[in-house]
Amino acid sequence: MALLETSKPSQGSVLGSVNPDLASERQTASFSVETLTALLDGGAEQTRIRRAVVEAIESDPVFSREYQYFQTQNERYEAAVRKAVHLQKKMHEMGWTENGPEYKYIYRALSGDVAFLLHRIFMRSISVLGSDKQIAKLIPLATQHRLIGSYAQTELGHGTYLQGLETTAVFDTATQEFILNTPKVSAMKWWPGDMGRSATHTVVFAQLYIHGKCYGIHPFIVQIRSLQDHSLCPGRVIIAKTKPREIAKVRPDGTYVRQGSQKINYFTMTAVRISLISDEVLTPLMKACTIATRYSVVRRQSKLKPGKVTIAMPMSTLSLLHQLSSNREEEAKILDYQTQQEKLLPQLAAAYAFHFTNDYLQELFNKGYREIEKKNFDMLPELHALSSGFKAVITQHCTAGVEICLRACGGHGYSLLSGLPSLYTKILASCIYEGENTILLLQTARFLIKCFMAASAGQPVPPSATYLAAVKHRKCPAKNKLDFLSPDIYIEAYQHVAVRLTSSTAAKLQDLIQSGVKKHDAWNQCTVQLVQAAKAHCHYIAVKNFAETVEKLETKAGIQKIMKHLCDLFALHGIFSNSGAFLHDAYTSGAQMDMVTSSYLDLLAVIRKDAVPLVDAFDFTDQSLNSALGSYDGQVYQRLYEWAQKSPTNQMSPAYEKYLKPLLHNTLSKL
Amino acid sequence: MALLETSKPSQGSVLGSVNPDLASERQTASFSVETLTALLDGGAEQTRIRRAVVEAIESDPVFSREYQYFQTQNERYEAAVRKAVHLQKKMHEMGWTENGPEYKYIYRALSGDVAFLLHRIFMRSISVLGSDKQIAKLIPLATQHRLIGSYAQTELGHGTYLQGLETTAVFDTATQEFILNTPKVSAMKWWPGDMGRSATHTVVFAQLYIHGKCYGIHPFIVQIRSLQDHSLCPGRVIIAKTKPREIAKVRPDGTYVRQGSQKINYFTMTAVRISLISDEVLTPLMKACTIATRYSVVRRQSKLKPGKVTIAMPMSTLSLLHQLSSNREEEAKILDYQTQQEKLLPQLAAAYAFHFTNDYLQELFNKGYREIEKKNFDMLPELHALSSGFKAVITQHCTAGVEICLRACGGHGYSLLSGLPSLYTKILASCIYEGENTILLLQTARFLIKCFMAASAGQPVPPSATYLAAVKHRKCPAKNKLDFLSPDIYIEAYQHVAVRLTSSTAAKLQDLIQSGVKKHDAWNQCTVQLVQAAKAHCHYIAVKNFAETVEKLETKAGIQKIMKHLCDLFALHGIFSNSGAFLHDAYTSGAQMDMVTSSYLDLLAVIRKDAVPLVDAFDFTDQSLNSALGSYDGQVYQRLYEWAQKSPTNQMSPAYEKYLKPLLHNTLSKL
């Protein structure tokens, strides 16, 4: 970034006093922001607890993020460790415990800039898979952070496909040890957070070999650094220190004994996939919406009533050189442009839609957990299909949303100081970890195909898939654009598309197989369409759940009304931007699609009025947004100016003496 | 990034010896890679010159990019200056001149990591707008880099809408000076590259005031730093030093005299918009395709013939714990998965499509320039509409393409070492500068609406818009999926959609105005659809031009055949992924859309065979790709391993002594 003042701006800092352009947006809210915040938190009491946690953390200078955007990777790492360590003291001081109501708000309050994130996964793995002896030995140490754990699964050459892992663990009956080895470069453990620099212990996944026979992937507890001086333990010594037999149940003579319920582990990992949605995916999108929306009512550009010339002129400098300007008339807020509304408001609607989807999934998982406690595992396939599909759909949708918000802020959105690039970097990662999205969607698709086959054969299917049995060949009954504001109409449209995509792909799959194509080749030739079917399934459930949630909302405080608008927008935007799926078999006609478009564009203008209150309801503090564009007071330019001055790029660079001076003084030859 | 070796990999460096998985892809090329490279360069002689420039630059250690990914922003700046300064010597040594055939390859060879990029714009502005006296004084100094120029247009508060600029230039008849001033924080000049740290002079755009009357935006030459010690010149001193009267033609008494042809300036800026497409947009996409495609034939994951369990199993660790692995059978290259082909190959087709679009635009501009030399400005509106629309469409399409390539490489794509994140950061910027894309698309839309009205009234319209007169209400004549491999069929489909979107939006606009809505409000209410129309227009021209280019290609060496496949893929992918536009008025039926889908998916499998030769033809050196995933030898894992060791993050961090040790030794309380 570069800036120049030809003369010092007269204006002093106005930070804190709310920009009138932003203040006016708040005066016209059609609903109670505080009530909506409480709804999002799950109750006013939860809001109170969350704010208390945020206040305690943000008032502590050790957790400051002020210079974050100017830090090197090493400086960011150091800060993350400092915060992680200080957090232990803080929790003790505040009396927060891992099981207390405050705990879940700590991560959000820290905006994730904290180390040891895999420590809990390490502890959970030990608790779930370890022997009583291991638990007794390691968990107390880990709880006090006398050791720091990591989770070493991914290798340089293998990620999602764990069967392909190349690290081996050979049981040596003589020494009663497991010899872990990474025989090739591609077998090297790669990516696990904290392992490279912080962790003293890790859970290493390796192919177990006993007497030359491979027993597949098993986890091994490995100490990787000295607890005394943090020096890296040499390979073989590590192994000798562990007692993995107690996890693997391998008898001294090498007899292999299975243990543990595969299904419970399976459930645990599916739960992890859901748990990341809120903090890692929804929060970044909500922050991006807050930043971009507030900026879009502060930023003014051109006139809505410009006089033909402005629109007809090219966006070029020189062509404007001799044109008289007419700055008397005020420029329009960019959020008043339909195109800007069409960029931001669907992202806002998606943030709310997926927040409620997340509630739905959490509830389903709690139910599933209760069933499993009764040794009933019937819900697992459905839970797996939903967690896989929604992890992929929500991370992709929200990542695209953050990018749209960033681009909608132009050059300033592109600047680190907007906070948007770091949100994008964070959310993009969520598309990659915890299962690659395309593979996850194919998991969901396989579930759908199975359910469709079962349903067609009149067999029972899980609740979320029963609709697949109801193959209707009706047409969309909508008569005018207002009909498309009726949830029954659009929910049925989404359902119809999901059924059509699943059934047509199932048919293609069968045709290919009947025509002699091998099963796996046939599957591969259908995967592009299978992915579409899985997305349609999730989109249908998200729309249905949003509409049902709105139904249940209290009518007071205008909450239900505005949520209904957002639900309609979410549904119609999906139809508008994916119209081919709805038009394909003429379920929806072109004339009806015009009604959808019309209702959709009308909604943009309606929701635009409440855009700022709707992002205010997310209740992010300025510190958590850490954005020069998105602060509550809307003092965008003053903040950019003041923050830019903190940048090391605005200090004199050695480049002048080294390179520029000889060039400018024409003494280059002497170089 | 974090890595762990439980034992040192036995394998030594194999860099240089081509990975067999990549080598095998090259043995089956259906065409001559060298011939295609020459076609892309515009002739074998051009290829020779380009390679000579690349060789000269890459063999010079001063231009090395080796540690680029580990540099701080200040270090990158210093390197960019070092390279820019050294480039002057290099050009002198090599005998390269700004008008020589080598010049256009220098920037590509440097991958843009060089300072003073605005210096040429500065020089061009002086040459075009300066007085003879200014040109005589400044151009020689600038040519020898005795001064460094910048271009200060954008302000904190205004970008694309230049009329809104707030910097003022008040003519003082007493001192015969212009007093430049940025009266508010939002008026501060922001963004101009080099200005913040390197430049000594800049062209400042300001509202000219004479005797209290505003004459609009004018450029002023301002010296901002001392040529002696590079210290920042205090505001008013700067002004006194310049002689802007000679640009602005203001007589001593303050009489304002216009000069220069607005139209020529206008043409110049439109040309700039075109010129950025090749280096700033197409090159990054071609590099991303090269990296992702090569990686996708080296990376292996899971089996195509997996045995049901693998696909049915969740992508979770623990569920796989007790499953026997079967690693004897080799895993599949990820490019053999239809879903991976569907991610990468359309981006590859787009890279070729837009390369030829760029040729078409360049040719059109040369023609336009010849006309202008004859004082014929008739082509300007069309050139402006095309340059605006294609700048927006190509930057958006290619930015999305780079992101898809990045995500298609999973975690390794997300790593800086892949080269993909820096390509994404670079190309994303192109969506923002030289005119915000939505505004540019609306410029094109306005041109289309005018042409449509004119055409409907039987008046003549520019060549690229004549098709708007040919409003057909026919249906798509395709009978089977092979018909969709006929350019006539898909070109007409694209044309039909462009006409429909333009005409329907024109009708909506008229209806609104006739119903009493004010013109500017009516326009605003149509902008979402106007943007769709502009995109459809550009997409139609791109498809048509690609097909016409293929027609003209020599049939030998298999070039025409493979280019025809890519043209078909580009066209069908556009229909497949935007099917609603084609289904809307039933021009294309659902059954025909199934044919499109079928032909599209068939093409993926066909082009996949030539995927590696097709990216090899882009002819990027390993140094220019600077990617651990994309190098010619395909030694992905070894390179990641070796490069990671250069990272400062793999050195011991002070965080241990400061924070970790007290924590692990449980002496925190003493902190």
TrEMBL record, chains A, B:
InterPro entries referenced in this protein's UniProt entry, alphabetically: ACOX_C_alpha1, Acyl-CoA_ox_N, Acyl-CoA_Oxase/DH_mid-dom_sf, Acyl-CoA_oxidase, Acyl-CoA_oxidase_C, AcylCo_DH-like_C, AcylCoA_DH/ox_N_sf, AcylCoA_DH/oxidase_NM_dom_sf
- Tell me where in this chain the Acyl-CoA oxidase C-terminal domain is found: 487-664
Top-rank taxon: Eukaryota
| Name of this protein | Acyl-coenzyme A oxidase
Q: Does the keyword Oxidoreductase apply?
A: yes
**Where, subcellularly, is it found?**
Peroxisome
Q: Which GO terms describe its cellular component?
A: peroxisome
Family named by the database record = Belongs to the acyl-CoA oxidase family.
Q: Which cofactor does this sequence's record say it needs?
A: FAD
| Acyl-CoA oxidase C-alpha1 domain sequence ranges | 266-449
Pfam families named in the record? ACOX, ACOX_C_alpha1, Acyl-CoA_ox_N
Molecular function as annotated in GO: 3alpha,7alpha,12alpha-trihydroxy-5beta-cholestanoyl-CoA 24-hydroxylase activity; acyl-CoA oxidase activity; ATP binding; FAD binding; fatty acid binding
Q: Which residues form the Acyl-coenzyme A oxidase N-terminal domain?
A: 32-147
Give the record's pathway.
Lipid metabolism; peroxisomal fatty acid beta-oxidation
**Where along the chain is FAD bound?**
T154, G193
Keyword field: ATP-binding, FAD, Fatty acid metabolism, Flavoprotein, Lipid metabolism, Nucleotide-binding, Oxidoreductase, Peroxisome
Q: Which Gene3D superfamilies match?
A: Acyl-CoA dehydrogenase/oxidase, N-terminal domain, Butyryl-CoA Dehydrogenase, subunit A, domain 2, Butyryl-CoA Dehydrogenase, subunit A, domain 3
Species per Swiss-Prot/TrEMBL record: Chloebia gouldiae
Where it mainly occurs, coarsely classed, is other
Q: Where is the active site?
A: E434 (proton acceptor)
BP GO annotations:
fatty acid beta-oxidation using acyl-CoA oxidase; lipid homeostasis; very long-chain fatty acid metabolic process
Q: In its keyword annotation, does this UniProt entry include rRNA-binding?
A: no
